[in-house]
Amino acid sequence: MDFIDGGVTAPLGFMAGAAAAGLRRGGGDDVALVVSARDCAAAGLFTTNVVKAAPVLLDMEVLGRRQDAGETPALRAVVANAGNANACTGPAGLDAARGMQAATAQVLSAASIQPEQVLVLSTGVIGVPLPLEKVAAGIAQAAARLDAACGEVAARAIMTTDTRPKSFAVRCELPGGGVTLGGMAKGAGMIHPNMATMLAVLTTDAAVEPALLERLLKASADRSFNCISVDGDTSTNDTVLLLANGASGVAVDSPEAEAVFGEALLALCTALAQAIVRDGEGATKFVTVQVEGLPDDGAAKQVANTIATSALFKTAVAGGDPNWGRVLAAAGRAGVPFEPDAAALWIAANDGAPLQLVAGGTPTDYNEDDAAAIFAQSELTVRLRLGDGPGAAKVWTTDLTHEYVTINSHYRT
Amino acid sequence: MDFIDGGVTAPLGFMAGAAAAGLRRGGGDDVALVVSARDCAAAGLFTTNVVKAAPVLLDMEVLGRRQDAGETPALRAVVANAGNANACTGPAGLDAARGMQAATAQVLSAASIQPEQVLVLSTGVIGVPLPLEKVAAGIAQAAARLDAACGEVAARAIMTTDTRPKSFAVRCELPGGGVTLGGMAKGAGMIHPNMATMLAVLTTDAAVEPALLERLLKASADRSFNCISVDGDTSTNDTVLLLANGASGVAVDSPEAEAVFGEALLALCTALAQAIVRDGEGATKFVTVQVEGLPDDGAAKQVANTIATSALFKTAVAGGDPNWGRVLAAAGRAGVPFEPDAAALWIAANDGAPLQLVAGGTPTDYNEDDAAAIFAQSELTVRLRLGDGPGAAKVWTTDLTHEYVTINSHYRT
Predict the structure, then answer these.
(1) Distance, CA of A157 to CA of A145 (rounded, Å)
(2) Number of structural domains chain A divides into
(3) The domain spanning residue A40 has which CATH number?
(4) Residue among A319, A363, A405 minimizing CB distance to B402
(5) Is there a smaller number of Cβ atoms within 10 Å at the N or the C end of chain B?
């Protein structure tokens, strides 16, 4: 398995394009198209927020309806816009999302693409009516620019407060031959999808049955995108889409193929998820929070998420202050019982030796300068052991900085 | 019922004193004593954090043991220190907390106070051994300064990142005569007890049976201190203590007396809780989040807490940006089902007319300047209606500012 260039257009049979529809305050591309030359199987994961944006409701309908009917999905394109989330926009918003489908199908009619073969993504401000005419004009322009080399251009067009595009591709060898996977994503504000919208579009030229595609996507997302997310803590628009067009002529049709393909998909999702964290709003540090020793993985995840979302912990990381008391205090309020006297805590710089700060619930006689040196690094790991159970979890997060406050105090203005 | 001066020493028979034991980096008083001339009934509420500081474990033992044994509690004093939380300090920490009891009893031996009649409070850095000798010297000094006019001096000694003391007293007329209630508190970092320690000591010269005292304290705290707290989201040290010494000769012994006393206690707790919010770390605004229309109060509280703890909402308040989409997005991830299309949202400046921003889940045609003018105020209310149910809740919170990040990036250094 190797990482290669090209992003969503690295797999055979995919093209992408982007255009500036004038939705973004600062200008620049804000509409993106990803189009497959062939029918695709598709899978999607959507926000669990009660308040779902119109494009989420529409995509769920598109994918859900086809599954209900037992038909083979035959998706062809994804259309995305930044600058407007089309959320809290009521029935008019759903009409606008359908309008994006229709506009895409219209400009791609030469390729025989129907509106219901188009998935829709939106991100940006909530509660502002989507200016469909502008968006449709952007879609037409983006379609005119469709190219198999535009994966990163498309990734750039879906950025909001992201400072750089997230675009990766992976090539792997299945028993039947080589296949390629590509992906692009836009960042979640402060790295948690509850903080801003996370969107990802994944493509592959492998042939994968829809049910298997869904299962593989879910498994990979649980170990990547959902490691930067608090379960159930999502924005109105979070969406991950995976399209498989089979253009390689190689199918994922055996346990061996499934294992290799799954590994490649996980690597792709992990690269995108970690890139989102690294580019979190105002982020200066990449922190891995590991929790272990609890009865099950779910409990460990709950504790890890509580630490990773603690404003006190995150400001301490920003300040380079190894204030481990805040780690234990956050763990203690996660709603998971444990024996405080059994707690052990280590910190480590990227690839460095771990330094134990806490043993038996109380501080070791560690050297404060050593701890501060680790917290001064841009990448570090915090490992908390809370007992002897088999449950473990890992969450990636970042620090909470002045820059985060600046970005989010005036996001709309 | 009237607010009067004097804080914890306003009720008859209470004295307070403070001294500088050298625990606080910046200097100043950091040890406080509150002493009753007579035996007190006492009630306490403690953090639900799994990781409990030594003084919390000790106070729970003191109050719990007495209740188990069916004895009438006979408390006499509260000793408190700032600058060191005595948390994550293991058995040595518990010994140190008992040492604070012993030191207090020793210097007050002329008043026939026993160690087990002393409750202990600590706040400050976690995981640093408590320097008992220093603290004991401070206790001796504070005891030498005991005075019935030192309520506010004591309130000042328990401050950490607080910028001003929280000290209130209330006088009310029971059927049997007048009684006084006093209180002091120290602030919770960013207004949520999960963000820093909240301590409160309440006193009264009314005579109240222990069981009734406990019930009244719980009822008042639920509508005051717990309105600035996420249920279960607490620090290692959070504690509220209430001592009733009966020095007024007036008992709370009838439903009428209970009602008047309860109202006064709630007013006192509300004043302290709101003062904590107003003095939140870096806070520039006081925000009341009201949620209504859900099936029950618990669901409404859960939604209100999710909004009040949303970093995106709090930074928008800091920036004066009426970004209502963040309110709805936070509500939607609170884990409470509701019909998004029924959502209605109003904002209002203190005592001003409400401006409706959302009706039927979508924005009204409100004037953006009017909304911005309300969000520019230092006190404002956000009211979210999510259906027709009877459940309602109110939570007080504040904004998330640069100053908060500054304070918490370098709390220990």
Answers:
(1) 13
(2) 2
(3) 3.60.70.12
(4) A405
(5) C
Pair B89, B158 in one domain:
yes
Tens-of-pLDDT digits for all 413 residues of chain A? Answer: 999 999 999 999 999 999 999 998 788 999 999 999 999 999 999 988 889 999 999 999 999 854 554 565 599 999 999 999 999 999 999 999 999 999 999 999 999 999 999 999 999 888 899 999 999 999 999 999 999 999 999 999 999 888 899 999 999 999 999 999 999 999 866 444 444 578 999 999 999 999 999 999 999 998 898 888 543 356 788 899 999 999 999 999 999 999 999 999 999 999 999 998 888 777 788 999 999 999 999 999 999 988 988 877 888 888 888 889 889 988 998 989 999 999 999 999 987 899 999 999 999 999 999 999 999 999 999 999 999 999 999 999 888 777 767 766 665 54
Judge whether B176 and B208 are in contact, CB under 8 Å: no
Q: Using a CB-CB distance cutoff of 8 angstroms, which residues of chain B are in contact with residue A412? A: 321, 323
- Are A329 and B126 a contacting pair at CB < 8 A? yes
Residue A329: name the closest of B196, B80, B97, B229 by CA.
Answer: B196
Please report, as a single letter, which amino acid is at residue B256.
E
Taking an 8 Å cut-off on Cβ atoms, the answer to whether B363 and A127 are in contact is yes
Question: A318: distance to nearest CA of chain B, Å?
Answer: 6
Domain that holds residue A298: 286-409
- Asked if A197 is an active-site residue, the reply is yes
Reported as type and span, the H/E element at residue B62 is helix B54-69
Q: How far is A108 from chain B (nearest CA, A)?
A: 32
A336 at interface of B, judged by CB pairs closer than 8 A: yes
Range list of β-strands (E), A9-56: 14-19, 31-46
Mutation pick from A52, A315, A317 vs chain B, by most beta carbons of B within 10 Å, is: A315
- Chain A residue at shortest CA distance from B50: A332
Q: Are residues B266 and B303 in the same domain?
A: no
Chain B residues with beta carbon closer than 8 angstroms to that of A326 = 126
Contact A30, A81 (CB under 8 A): yes
Given A233, A248, A278, the domain boundary residue is: A278
Is the whole model's pTM more than 0.95, yes or no?
A: no
Compute the nearest-CA separation of B406 from chain A (Å).
Answer: 8
- A385 shares contact with chain B (CB less than 8 Å): no
Assigned token pair, A288: 């891995």
**Looking at this predicted complex, what is its ipTM?**
0.79
In angstroms, the CA A284 to CA A281 distance is: 9
Rounded-to-integer distance, Cα A308 and Cα A221, Å:
18
A195 interface with B at CB cutoff 8 Å: yes
Q: Are residues A330 and A206 in the same domain?
A: no
Q: Which of A9, A180, A197, A236 is catalytic?
A: A197
State whether residue A234 sits within 8 Å of chain B by CB. yes
